[in-house]
Amino acid sequence: MKRLVSRLLVVALPFLMSSPVWAQAPEMPSNLQIVGTIRATGDAPPPKAGDTVKVVEDKENGAVSATGSVLDDQGTFYVEMNKQAPYNGTPLRLQIVTGGQDFPLKEGKAEVRISFKGGFPFPKREDRTLYYGDGSEPVAAPAAAKAAPATAAGTQVCPASLPKCDVNGDGTFTQADLDLVKAELKLKTPSAKADINGDGQVNSADLVQGIKELKLKK
């Protein structure tokens, strides 16, 4: 009986592997976050909150693989890539779209190139300090705005329920702060800066309360 089963498997296995059902089996997700700071050099326009960061496959006429954004005027950026395991090893380069122009992003004087390497269930993270423009030295980032003073009614930048809401330190509480909290919550060990409700823990309560307060602010 065992011999018969073995023979059947030898005959049937090639057909099973070539079948559409086998070919459509789900592949393992592979997720990568690319974060850090972008600086302008020379006469290039400085980065602004809302500028687009593009991840492009490093080949001739390479397709745009993912897009992210600059979160504040200090050049903090965040890109999330959700791929599948076979995409690991794909060579990539990065660009920023600012002032109506596309600039290749560099590390030092060389255009930055990375090889996609994602993780699952927790994303891998690439932390980079990048530059663009023709100058040899980066232009200093604009100073972070000071926290807004109390108004006559005593209202501060952060509501009472979110004493640490200004995650990016620009003196305001906006969607950019919540985007940073979201990014941290996806990490296995999130940074304490995402503890915007000040309870000593970084969890979904920070994000839920942040969304609620931001809606009230509007």
UniProtKB/TrEMBL annotation:
Endpoints of the signal sequence: 1-23
Keyword Signal tagged: yes
GO molecular function: hydrolase activity, hydrolyzing O-glycosyl compounds
PROSITE patterns with a match to the protein in the record: EF_HAND_1 (PS00018)
Keywords, comma-separated and alphabetical: Signal
InterPro entries in the cross-refs: Dockerin_1_rpt (IPR002105), Dockerin_dom_sf (IPR036439), EF_Hand_1_Ca_BS (IPR018247)
The species this protein was found in: Novispirillum itersonii
Protein name in UniProt: Uncharacterized protein (UPF0212 family)
One GO term of the biological process aspect: polysaccharide catabolic process
Pfam families named among the record's database cross-references: Dockerin_1
Record keyword Signal present: yes
